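Q: My labmate handed me this sequence with no annotations at all. I'd like to see what the chain might look like in three dimensions before we decide whether it's worth expressing. Could you predict it?
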Amino acid sequence: MTPILEAAALNKRFRVRAEGFGRRRGTVHAVTDVSFRLHQGETLGIVGESGCGKSTTARLLMGLIRPDGGDIMLDGHVAGSSPAELKSFRGAVQMVFQDSAASLNPRLTIEASIMFGPLVHGVGRDEARRRTLALLERVGLEPSRFAGRYPHELSGGQRQRVNIARALALRPRVVIFDEAVSALDKSVEAQVLNLLGDLKAEFGLSYIFISHDLSVVRYISDAVLVMYLGQVVEHGPVARVYESPMHPYTRALLASMPSMDPEARTIEPPIAGDPPSPIDPPSGCRFHTRCPFAEPVCSKAAPKSVTLAADVQVACHMADPDSGHFRAGSAAR
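A: Here is what I predict for the chain of 333 residues:
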């Protein structure tokens, strides 16, 4: 099947100013050779530490920033090559941001905020208003009570429901959620996650779900993509990756999840040290400075992405039988 959305070798670098006398300007390697496919009706979760490139990847997919290399394809066609195509692409791919308050114009009512997108895309005012009221009802906000309110009159959970309704007002096919539930308390978070599941089934949507909460990603996702320092280190079905992680970073990330079992408490930190600076990333495998299985080959050569059983892709020398690593082919299992 042709994927509905595909990223092919996306790269993004940011120039940073020098601070202090005699210092040179640097380059932040935010996203490096990120590739994945999203199929119709699928939810792809993206996880990783802060600064690993998750949000930059989302903004690249939305066309909010331009990639330095690589392609973004919708239904097999390169997206956004002209202003008209970019406008059409943004009608098919929408995004819900983390900060629900900053995402809404404080001077617009809830009804006006949701109507704005359809009006810009040429939808008539009567149709835009009809969509707005129907979507408010669908996300659990009674139009007669909430349509005329302003963002500061709503709670965080209510504002995020408005953002979801606004994203759906253009009738997209893909919705990207960038930490969309991280600022909500757990009871509201559960309600929003259940709402997202219902909307996905009702409208035939595909999701890209970015989150620090590994439990939420496991609950909502079909596949998961693990990023470290701007690169994809593991990608595969969520059940397979969570039950049998192959990359050392993925195992360390999952080991950091809190457990309700007092016998399964974490005694030692699963990973030591801080991630290296993205301005000067390590040579070879970017994780080798923190990896307990690192060998000389890890600092000399970047690992290839190897496809293992159950469609799991791993970028690790231990997963590549020809890498020259002592544990080559075993993935340290």
